[in-house]
Structures
1.
Amino acid sequence: MVRLALLLLAVVVALPAGSQSPPPGWREPRCAFGTAPFATPLCSELVATPDLQGVRGMLELRSIPTPFGVAVRADGSLRHYLVARFEGLPSAASLGGAALVAWGYDLTHEREVRLGVVTNGTTPLGELPFEYFRVLVSAEPVAGSRTRRGRLVARATSPNSLMLAHRDAMAPMMTPPGSAHAGHDMGWPMPPVDPRLAPSAMAHDPPTAAPWLPDTTGRPVVARRPTEVLQVADGDTIDLAAGLIRRTVAGRTFVLYGYNGQSPGPMIRAARGASVVVRFRNDLDLPSTIHWHGLRHDWRDDGVPHVSQEPVPPGGTHTYHLRFPDAGIYWYHPHVREDIQQELGLYGNILVGRRARAGVRVHREEVLALDDFLVAEGDRPMPFGSDTASHVLMGRIGNVLLVNGEPRYHLAVRRGEVVRLYLTNVSNARLFNLRIPGARLKVVGSDLGDFEREAWVESIVMAPAERYIVEVMFPRAGRYALLNSVRWLDHMRGTSALVDDTLGTVVADARPATPDYAAGFGVLREHRDVQRELVPLRAALTRAPDKTLTLGMQLTGVVPSVVAMLTGIAMPVDWNDAMPMMNWALTAREVTWTLRDDAGAVNMGIHWHFRVGDQVKVRLVNDPTVTHAMAHPIHFHGQRFVVLSRNGAPNANMVWKDTAVLPAGETMDILLDLTNPGTWMMHCHVAEHLGTGMMGMFSVAP
Ligand code: C2O
Ligand code: CU
């Protein structure tokens, strides 16, 4: 036993840093020599010293497979697997060494990690534990040297380090760091609400848009009621009215929106296969519709304005016939000015009965809608653009985090309790990285069902509109924090720091949960039914895509100083609004986020035609070279898809999805399973990106 342990220890010690095996597909080049722009988020040139002519080198950041498509450490920093590619490297001997060795450093060069010997061709280097880093290649006199002594051959810097140029250029103009963290829950200075600085004012002279807030004149405003659970049976009819509500968020009282006076709106629980009728009444001051996100139902009930119905005017009504063909967690929200209506609280969940799997026991199920809300100074919601969305760059990322509409979620459990969480990201634009330190998290499902196999996870990364089903065990009595742990980027200073925001607490009391489900919880299950269905889809991995969608952005009429601020600096994923002023000021007049297909059609110019039964391979390419590349959660209405691969790496654990996030600079192949006839939308689910037109259409003939 001891010898086995020692042996294991020896193996662990002998492995180089970041020693996990390279992600599948790592040999396939991702960054072209010579053409990689200086600042794409995943490529960095390995620049040889000037005396070495004809050497070409590239450091590539490869994504590490996770159930979420984004790999992060507990501190919210992104994980990447590093690969070096070289051409024209001279021999180590000609440089007076025995081997060419790559080393990783943090930016202070205080910490050094040996990455291994490199040669011409492609070399897997492993992962570095640093958010910002440098890689040096040296000609080492001893191949196995533990620390760098030999002459320098090449160097690269992590692409995100370019951001630090901002710090160097802007530092004298900035206020001291401490002053930024005062007054607000989320701790950053809010732009003042100055009417002269309404959205568009920064980019246009004179300003053309007026700020917008809900108009209460002549409309009833009801006090917010707790969210009710509507258990619906096949054939039932329910009423949903969207209207103005008065509610208190983090001690401040606002007039916002709700369904039936509730925000989140009523939670609809239905059995799989059931049909219900929803009578919708619009008591808002804006036209609206309800979209039933993720349902493979009749397209005429899908709530898409001018496609499946005309928007319901204030005072108007509309009847929706819903069908719930798939077990899982869904949600509903307006499909008109989502930037306003979703932000102000119009969303609700639909939980469609899940068949209990043999041996899987949980003590309770909780449905959590994760949201944020942007409060301006003067205790009002940050005004919206009146005729177009504001904040169209990063999206409207709030400064108060909400779970089920409350800034402090609370759950009381018993020691050893196993809770199944149904999580939905209902925010306009925020990516969450959820953790519950001390508890064990097991991810079991996502948008439309179970993963092929369950997985232990450190955190759950969720983009807008994605859902995850996670089982959690609280092993000990005590308090557990539900955290959003992300890197807080300060674009101006070019620096980032861990911010752990507490979304709520779970308190486990000392009495043990009965019965004891610990043994069953400890097992990771293979979902054979899902595997049987999904494994054959992998045949599509080897065929060429049927369609390609390139995700990009165009800027018009933006003053050069603003363009300069944005250019060349992109993070694979943005967790916070690092440029609140600029973001706020940009509207759909200046920014157009785009989907472009292989035929050159853009946004609503795209209309694809398929037939029921088609399985279409779509390659999504998030163009890293646009002025400000960003992650986009891409949603297809009325169908389901699997992510086949990311960046050429096959997905080993698939799940049916309707929304998947694509970080900046990455490529994702999906297989769209066209089962449901009709005319449908596909779009980015960042409300403000959608608001600039980042959407296209497809029709499925019966
Ligand atoms: Cu929840 Cu068109 O989307
Ligand atoms: Cu987007």
2.
Amino acid sequence: MATQTLDRTTTDATREIISYDPATGAEVGRAPIASAAEVARAVARAREAQAAWGALSFRARGRVVLRARELVLAELEEIAKLIAREAGKPVAEAIAMELVPTLDLMQFFARRTQRLLRPEKIDIGQYGLMGRSSRIVYRPLGVVGIISPWNFPWAIPVGEVVMALMAGNGVVLKPSELTPLVGLEIADVFKRAGVPEGLFSVVTGDGATGAALVEASVDKIMFTGSVATGKRVGVAAAERLMPCVLELGGKDPMLVLEDADVEAAARAAVWGAFANSGQACASVERCYVHERIAPGFSARVVELTQQLKQDAGTHAGADIGAMSSERQLQIVAAHVEDAVAHGARVLTGGQRTAGALAKGWFYEPTVLANVNHAMTIMREETFGPVLPLMTFKTEDEAIRLANDSIFGLTASVWTRDTGRGKALAEQIEAGTVMVNEVLYTHGIAQTPWGGMKQSGLGRTHGRAGLLELVAAQHIHVNRITLLPDLWWFNYTARAAALFRGLARRFTTGSVWPTSLLLPQMLRRWRERR
Ligand code: NAD
């Protein structure tokens, strides 16, 4: 590991990324760094192929996606192992959190996109009585650029690729520089499934390659990553007046009310905070517990945490693998050190893992108490295996604490009274709020995914996510062309009087007051003939 940079990624003169296993430091493989010219060529190829793809039926597109799904299923173990080696997570978790959700998403969008994008008739009220009709049709955008992070190197890009292809678009994907081989595997699967030549390509590379994709003439950028990079992407997209979806960071709160099922909540907190070594945008990063149940809850959380097995992701039985990069491990260590320096108590963990795992980027699953909102650990995204616990006395206080954040991705409320849970959920500023659940709804293809506040703009997944990948076009038809419209030229005195009448009566939206204008309308029509 001595020769590696902070990100385990070397971008030397050979224009190559070297991908390392974060658990061992062993090289996993290499991938090219695509230049801006190569990115532009990929976009041009996708644009050329898109015209024919966009003209295909949903069923024909779905057949290709379902073939890709069969390949993923047949190669499940190999793909999960590659994810584990590049990202550090346990193979079992790669299957549960990356492959199962995408297999489900693939069948859902392959079969349902046609229905989800069915043309819609719009009720245009009284205009309909004049022989007019309106409907919305959904057209492909053209070429969609996808820029993805390393924490779910398979599930995040595959979901977006499938949805963009099903919507009829060409796609160019730039995977994270920490997980380029998973990106290339995605390209390979879709190629073998029969995606037309050039329609979908993967350009591996670093931030400059991502920036080149934003600068290439794509029609939309789907970006997932940090707030800092998301802002840069947003600015670059705005310069081109190009729309973008930004799926950014989180600092997701979990509220455990006094009537919660303590055992379930404790287990959920431990999984929600430590799955993927805490490197999920929707990880539980702040846990607020009612003071009455706090002692029992925190004791159980500590007990469960100490039972977790930390090991290389490729070793059977591992619960928690390595963190994906040294940089991330350093952020986690700095947040914990800062919290401890300001009075936090470490209930378990609190340091880089020693012993046989010391050669990899492992951090002990950590539970902290005695934290407050002045500490970095409660304000900035930690993105690591740390669960800070804080107590509250009242519901109002819990909501105030949950909303005291620049982020708003997901949140959870734990209570035996689901009615109470739903009422509280609606007071929390987050794109998704779960009652008696944590973290997992990115895995439900049907539900929208996206944040409020600095957690991002726009949605992925569900119908809302699909609508981000099409242009909604309004088609308006006038079936009665016999008579000129009342509001066309010339603006005679009679016309002006009618317009005043329209302002008073037609705009009520009711037919009865409008019908009182009929004599005036007839006079106006006669005048226009
Ligand atoms: P990052 O912002 O460092 O990188 C994300 C991607 O952007 C990478 O592919 C990177 O190469 C590329 N990139 C870097 N600079 C760029 C530029 N100037 N222009 C265009 N692309 C550029 O994020 P990361 O460290 O890979 O991912 C972790 C972050 O992602 C966390 O903040 C996490 O919360 C967030 N995340 C959010 C979601 C969500 O759905 N909201 C999901 C997963 C991760």
